[in-house]
Amino acid sequence: MRLKNILITGLLIIMAGGSVFAQKKAKNTKGAALTDRQFWLQQMDKMVKPVLYNLAKDSLRIAMPKITSVHIDNKEHRIKVQYVEVLGRVLSGIAPWLQLEGGSDEEVALRKQYREWAIQGLKNALDSNAKDFMNFDIGGQQLVDASYVALALVRAPWLWENLDKKNQALMMQSIVTTRRFKPVFSNWLLFSAMNEAFLAKFGYSWDPMRVDYALQQMEQWYIGDGMYSDGTSFAFDYYNSYVIHPYLATLANIIGTKTSSYKEMFGKIKKRNERYAIIQERLINADGTYPATGRSIIYRGAAFHHLADMAWRKALPKQLSAAQVRCALTAVIRKTLESPSTYKNGWLTIGLYGDQPNLGDFYNNQGSPYIASNIFLPLGLPASDPFWANPAEKWSAQKIWSGENFENDHSASLK
Predict the structure, then answer these.
(1) Model pTM score
(2) Lower CB density within 10 Å: C or N end of the chain?
(3) What residues does each domain of the chain span?
(4) Which residue ranges does the record assign to the DUF2264 domain (predicted)?
(5) pLDDT tens across 177-199, in order?
(6) For residues 88 and 145, is the Cβ–Cβ distance under 8 A?
(7) What's the farthest any 2 CA atoms get from each other in the chain?
(8) CA-to-CA distance for 338 and 361, rounded, in angstroms?
């Protein structure tokens, strides 16, 4: 009977639509148009609430669908690892907003609720007696997933500081246990490095060799014009944005405080970050669409993880104004989430524009598309920041395709 009640409660939660912010907005605005920030908060809330609400209630395993790609390689295994996967991907995207203080009364209340869910959810994930307890040692994929949890904690020290000592130790041990997995000779090297950077940031013993190996190998894989190959061959996909640039920027920020050995390399990384941000902004079409090329295209807005990260870190190059980036990213959010089949019973479907199962890859499970939350990183900037406060501006594609006289673009080696 207890299980039946839990299932019914979970179903009602999902059917309710999930967006507390959207419901309150409807009452408060009486049809008034949402600001960009309100729209972002509405979409963030709708996307991540089913994950963190259920995890906080110790019911994620009950409520979360066990959906995998139609091209899946090992369905049973991919379902087992989807819980750490969804935890890291959701938290890494909303971490800067959780770290922020202040804002409208409504936003402060929403953040307070999410902070409570996040802390309780982490405790449940680390509690071996909880139904939602998460093992970090099931398989190699969890090296990836642990790194997103580590990235979230690095981006939001508030989360770490509000875990008690016992759960801090459990989290540290969970992340360390993924050292047993050998990373694929690709962007996966950065996942190992991020886990070590997390340990370094919070005062634990860390392995400089794992960080050095990743940094030195990525330097070898740099091919020019702000882009890296992912392993020994280049692929025209979005992994420079999904992983490579945001991870390198974060590593530079953390490891740069521990040693000056990489000063020259980090200087190059900064310039490459800027060049790739310019390329990313130009990839966003006038209607918010972008080339649907390469693997992991079902990650939706995470294709612009790097551009969002640069905006949040206030590291955009001078060629890009904060307002034009805001407007471009808003268009991407709107386009990638507007399809009626984007969600099924409140959960993200596998697809780019709605439910498109054939776009999935062999490693995709229900947790995979939640990396899309990383487009919301600029919510970590206060509403008074120029990113939000400045008037709307056209982005490059809008200017070019409306016939404006616009500056041309040139590649840059930056080796």
Answers:
(1) 0.93
(2) N
(3) 36-402
(4) 36-395
(5) 999 999 999 999 999 999 999 99
(6) yes
(7) 68
(8) 22
